Amino acid sequence: MAELTALESLIEMGFPRGRAEKALALTGNQGIEAAMDWLMEHEDDPDVDEPLATPLGHVLGREPTSSEHGGPAGPGSTAGEGKPSLSEEEKQEQTKRMMELVAQKQREREEREEREALERERQRRRQGQELSAARQRLQEDEMRRAAEERKREKAEELAARQRVREKIERDKAERAKKYGGTVGSQPSPSATEPGPVPSSPSQEPPTKREYDQCRIQVRLPDGTSLTQTFRAREQLAAVRLYVELHRGEEPGGGQDPVQLLSGFPRRAFSEADMERPLQELGLVPSAVLIVAKKCPS
What is the phi-psi region of residue 61: left when phi exceeds 0, alpha when psi lies from -120 to 50, beta otherwise? Predict the structure, then answer.
């Protein structure tokens, strides 16, 4: 049984002649299957119907004309000689085989697209899980820092009370030793000879207190505020990350980067400031920051 050429087979299957010729030429005339793969992959290209600029000849699966050879037909050729034509049944059988091949290629393409869609969905879910885990870790860190802060403040309060009691006891003992009795039996000083003024905790110069925690209040553009405690040696970038995770979704879907400003004195923190600790920036033991949208550069 005579076989149709690749070009004729593609035309019988319903592909436009221009597309069929282009597919065969661009796949190097490697057969109908390669050409159909190209046609299905590029069927939505805007230039799929634009013809090729070079003559196609045998590459398209058709006999070149005498003008393509540059002269009359070669020796041994006859004017009436041609390819044997196929019967209607043979054409239908070959077309049926080609259509089955097209259907198979279409199924393979749909399965590939379905696998790619599933992979994209898995990646989206994985990214969502990672973001949720990061937020959970941040919340746990916040709770731990708050518990440590309460514990530290309570310990400092107890230590301060103990120091005051100890100082009061020392003062009592010194006065008793100086006046030869208890504090209650201390004689009144004479009018001409004033006695020494006992020392008191309020008369001692205050000692500078070192803070290792910093309480930051952040005011958002919509009027709400966030309050969080950070370590004094944490970088300002930690505050910005906290704001970006807790400021909520803005209308329109996108989240613009934020600019942190100090309330008084007015100061806009730069990217270099994000790497500096809160203690160095003068935000310890507490500060109020303002969030403003950063203008795109």
Answer: left
β-strand 213-219 against 286-293: which pairing, if any? Answer: parallel
Lookup: tokens for 216 = 């930051």
Is 64 buried (19+), middle (13-18) or exposed (0-12) by CB count in 10 A? Answer: middle
How far, rounded to the nearest angstrom, does the alpha carbon of residue 214 sit from its chain's CA centroid?
Answer: 29
Rounded to an integer, what distance in angstroms lies between the CA atom of residue 41 and that of residue 109? 9
Contact criterion met (CB below 8 Å) for 291 and 259: yes
Q: What proportion of the chain, given as a percentage, has pLDDT over 90?
A: 26
**Cβ atoms of 263 and 272 closer than 8 Å:** no
Residues ≥6 apart with Cβ < 8 Å to 17: 7, 11
Q: Which residue in the block uniquely carries the two structure tokens 């009436």?
A: 80
Distinct helix (H) and strand (E) counts, the chain = 6, 5
d(CA 292, CA 256): 10
Interval 83-139: pLDDT, tens? 456 577 766 776 777 778 777 877 887 898 899 999 999 999 999 999 999 999 999
Which residues in the chain belong to E strands, given as ranges? 213-219, 225-231, 258-262, 267-268, 286-293
Residue type, 74: G
